[in-house]
Design brief:
By secondary structure, the chain is mainly alpha-helical. It has a domain of 62 residues. Helix content is 68%, strand content 0%. Helix 5 runs antiparallel to helix 6. The longest helix is centred in the N-terminal third of the chain and has 15 residues. 15% of the residues are buried.
Amino acid sequence: MKRLLVAFSFSLAWNYQIPGAIAAPASPASAPTTASLVPKNASLQKIYRKAMEAYDAKRYDEAVDLFGQVLTKQPDHTSSKIFLARSLYQQKNITEA
């Protein structure tokens, strides 16, 4: 039984850890760009900061509205998408999140 467990463990290690260690690094195209992480202009940065303050203060209705404003003007803003989904989830609005 012990040999079977050792063989099984080795098999798992080979299948899940080793190929990942020797896999090619992710291409730069798959990594999020800086543009999608930072609001494009000062007014969007201000709205985003207010949205984050609302989220941190658990004012999720306000946060949803503000993150929506950012995404209307910059649809590729990844952080706003994430925190919009989190805000909707906190409101128990799972389907929209």
